[in-house]
Structure formats: structure tokens, C-alpha cells
Design a protein that fits this description.
alpha+beta; Endonuclease III, domain 1; Nucleoside Triphosphate Pyrophosphohydrolase; 2 domains; 4-stranded mixed beta sheet; 16 helices; 7 strands; disordered C terminus; iron; adenine/guanine mispair binding
């Protein structure tokens, strides 16, 4: 892992934030590109939001990236541009909780503090035969206190990382744990009592809220695609997206919706349905290409036509972008991957687009 080969405080911090709820293999490429573009805390504190979001595009949980920049700005003003070297100061920074503070403090600064993540809690629950709910703060605190008692005076960075990897590689979360390969099996209560697949205990998550959307890919005659910036609050705030309706519509309903400007529309092409799962919300989406034949400039098209569709509220910041600009400039959330792929496929096929039925 590149962040372990050169475990400077900055590198450890960036890697730990990226690794939150993301697989190691998925992080490698993002980490290398991020460090190359933003090699230090000062450059991170000054980066434009769209550049930052573009670097993060595809990793999801964009608040992680936003908090990185906020923390870098705080570090610049309050800590002289140097990442604080102890747990108590680290935990005051945006986006850094008890685990991340413990990981940075122990790995980068060798401070003898615990770094208890989901992997570590699973290992402890099985070794101790503990059926406490690990989603409860009380359980997390008790496990942190237990690990604190076990931390050696030296080599704390190796101890914490070894405990994490025991959970990631041997004491697996899904499927059968590799108990016969585990160096802790002789003292593992769960293994000796045959309950390793029943631990750790997690309370059931609340049912996700379902939201339906109709994603609209407007293309003008010059192959520019209409995108808009989401509001600076709420889900995916500050990121770019394709305009959408807040409900699902059939092809016939879509045609009816755009009847007031039908003379400006060449054709409407159905796109595949898609879904995206956030922590508490699930988007169920369908979509359409809306090919426009109007010869007016894009700015006029935007101002004079689309606002006549009352069900399609556009944000205050809209852009007609090229596909190349979508690749390099404007960060689109992974939620729209299906429709971005459809756009890429259309570019490859040109006028020979035969993926979907089309009509007006």
C-alpha cells in the first residue's frame, strides 16, 4: 500500500479518509492521483471545489472530500500548516472521528492510542464471545478501552494495523472466517463454541426511503449536454448532475410533458432504468435522451425554453458541457453512472445509436 511505504502524517490522513467505507483496491488509483495533484496540506486548503470533487469522483460519500478541505484550512490557520501530532487535537478536525484520529496518531506519530474500526470490533467480539450490539456507542467505547489496555509501549503502529488486518483478511465479515489460519484461534471463544458466524451482533438498519427520479439528458445540436449544480445543502450538495424530475414518467408521459416545446425537440430516446443506494435513501431512476433541434445559442435555449416546463426546476447554475468537459472538469456523482455511460456510448456510436427504441 503506497501510504504505508511513505507514512507521512499527510499521506496517512488522506488514505484513512479514502478508506472509510471503501475497499483498499478501489482506493489505490484515487490516492495516487490525489497526492500527485494535491501533494500537501496547503494545496488541499486552496483547491477549487470542482477540482476536488473531480479527484473524488466515483469514490462516493463526497462529504469526506469536503471535510478534508475544511480540515486543511483549519490546520493552516490554527496549526501552522502541520497536521496535529496527537489524538486530542486531531479529533477536533472536520471529518476525523475516534477511529481516524487513533489511526493517524498511532501510525504517523506512534502515539499509544487505539484505532478501533469495524474490523477490530469484529475481532474483539469473536475472541471475547461478546454479543453486545457493536452499533451502540457504549459497546464501541468498551472495546476502545479494552484495546487501550492491550497496546504495547512500542510498535503501536504495527499493533493497530495488525489488528485491523486480522479482521480484514482472516476474521472475515461475510462468509466463513478463516479460523484455521488465525493466530488467535486458541483463545477465541467464538471459535471454540462454534458461534463465529453469529458475531458480531448488529441491530437491523432502518428501511431506506425510496425516491423515484426521471433523469433527462438534454443534447443540443452541437452535442452539448445540459448539467446543473446541486444546491449547497442536502444530499450531494455542490456537485453537478443531469436535470431530473422527482417522479417516474413513461415515454408517453415524457412526450406529453414536453409538448409545449415539441417544435424544438428532434426526438426522445428511452434509457435504461437504474438505482443507487445511499445510506438512508435509495434512488430508483429511469431516463431519457432529449435531442433538441433548436438553432438558437445554448444560453437562449436554456433561458427561453426549458423554464416553461414547470415540473423541471433548474438550479441557478447550469452549463451546456461537452462530453470531454464532463470527463475532465465537471464532477458527476456515481449515482448517475448509468446515464453517463449511455452518453459515452452515444458518442462512440454517433448517428448509429441503436441501443434503445426511440420516438417522439
Amino acid at each position: 500500500m503506497p501510504w504505508r511505504e511513505d507514512p507521512t502524517p499527510y499521506h496517512v490522513w488522506i488514505s484513512e479518509i479514502m478508506l472509510q467505507q471503501t475497499r483498499v483496491e478501489a482506493v489505490r488509483e484515487y490516492y495516487a492521483r490525489f497526492i500527485e495533484t494535491l501533494p500537501d496540506i496547503y494545496s488541499l486548503s486552496q483547491v477549487e471545489d470542482d477540482v476536488l470533487h473531480k479527484l473524488w469522483e466515483g469514490l462516493g460519500y463526497y462529504n469526506r472530500a469536503k471535510n478534508l478541505k475544511k480540515a486543511a484550512q483549519q490546520i493552516t490557520t490554527e496549526f501552522g500548516g502541520e497536521l496535529p501530532n496527537n489524538y486530542n487535537k486531531l479529533i477536533t478536525l472536520p471529518g476525523i472521528g475516534p477511529y481516524t484520529a487513533g489511526a493517524i496518531a498511532s501510525i504517523a506519530f506512534h502515539e499509544p492510542v487505539p484505532a478501533v474500526d469495524g474490523n477490530v470490533m469484529r475481532v474483539i467480539a469473536r475472541i471475547m464471545g461478546d454479543d453486545s450490539d457493536i452499533t451502540e456507542n457504549k459497546t464501541k467505547q468498551e472495546m476502545m478501552e479494552l484495546v487501550q489496555q492491550l497496546i504495547p509501549v512500542t510498535e503501536v503502529h504495527h499493533f493497530n494495523q495488525a489488528l485491523m488486518e486480522l479482521g480484514a483478511i482472516i476474521c472475515l465479515p461475510n462468509g466463513e472466517p478463516k479460523c484455521l489460519e488465525c493466530p488467535m484461534s486458541t483463545m477465541c471463544i467464538a471459535y471454540h463454541t462454534g458461534i463465529q458466524n453469529k458475531l458480531p451482533v448488529k441491530k437491523k438498519k432502518n428501511t431506506r426511503k425510496i425516491e423515484e427520479k426521471t433523469v433527462l439528458l438534454f443534447l443540443d445540436e452541437k452535442e452539448h449536454i445540459l448539467i446543473q449544480k446541486r444546491e449547497q445543502k442536502g444530499l450531494l450538495h455542490g456537485l453537478w448532475e443531469f436535470p431530473s424530475l422527482t417522479y417516474s414518467v413513461s415515454l408517453e408521459e415524457c412526450q406529453s410533458l414536453f409538448a409545449p416545446i415539441s417544435s424544438h425537440i428532434k426526438k426522445i430516446v428511452p434509457l435504461p432504468s437504474s438505482k443507487h443506494i445511499f445510506t438512508h435513501i435509495e434512488w430508483k431512476m429511469n431516463g431519457y435522451f432529449v435531442f433538441l433541434n433548436d438553432k438558437k445559442p445554448s444560453s437562449v435555449l436554456k433561458s427561453s425554453l426549458l423554464p416553461t416546463i414547470s415540473e423541471l426546476p433548474l438550479s441557478s447554475e447550469t452549463v451546456w458541457a461537452t462530453i470531454e468537459e464532463l470527463r475532465k472538469v465537471y464532477p458527476l456523482p456515481t449515482a448517475f453512472k448509468t446515464y453517463r455511460n449511455a452518453l459515452e456510448e452515444k458518442e462512440r456510436q454517433g448517428e448509429q445509436l441503436n441501443l434503445f427504441d426511440s420516438s417522439w
